[in-house]
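Notes from hallway chat w/ T.B., transcribed later so I don't forget. T.B. wanted the structure written out for a chain they're using in a teaching module, and asked if we could keep both sequence and structure tokens in one place. Agreed to drop them here.
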Amino acid sequence: MTSFDVPTLRSGLASAGYLADDALTTALLLAVRMGQPILLEGEPGVGKTEAARALASTLDTVLIRLQCYEGLSSAEALYEWNYPRQLLAIRLAESRGEPLGDNDLFTDAYLLARPVLAAVTHPGPRPAVLLIDEVDRADDEFEAFLLELLADHAVTIPELGTRRAVVPPVVVLTSNRTRDLHDALKRRCLYHWIAHPPADRVAEIIRRRVPASAGWLASRVAVAVDRLRAVDLMKPPGVAEAISWATALHVLDVSTMDETAVEATLGAVLKYPEDAETVRAMGLATLVDADA
């Protein structure tokens, strides 16, 4: 991976279906070359998760994903013990009259690795890409748990001690910025904000993700999404919604993007009834008028 440079990585990401600008490509390259975690922030739907997927594909390595949520504990992210197998071992030992202590039960043989431990113990030769998705949904305690991993590429299992990565993972954290993350976590990470791309890039992304769609459809959807983002909506559409909208229009085999087609597929791009009513009130023609 030391041979990677910005053009090579950008080409690899594109081959994986992800169009990244030089700034994002450089940030990802630094995360790989420096062995430092990277925090990707941006509005929902701009492609933060897909960036990690494309990076893993480009590096030809495994992607290990940890989806964060409120109440996520360190144990759920790190490991659990195979209690049924431990119970079976206890009963087998009892039937044989053999003593069985904690040191016999709490070993690697009974350890079930969850995403974080799986990434740390990944044997290589290439490092795993560990995606810690939507870390802003987790709580302060989970952030504190991540600090050891981010600083030392290590985790601690109380019964077994500290495990250090032989092949440190490439750690990608994403956040929708629903809350501020602590400075201690940010200090350990490189940082990049992924902005919503311009309409021409959205059109190119749609062509790559929905290759069966007509060329004109990708352009019209991209322009319409760009216009929707200028409206005061509860949930402005992102790239993900643009892809979904183009897919819906393609599935319906529309020959022109008119008001009827937009009305039929509005649920693919707008996720709140209030937003749909706002757009209807301003007139669907504003989305499809080429001269608007």
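Follow-up for T.B.: Residues 83-96 form the longest helix (14 residues). Might be a good example for the class.
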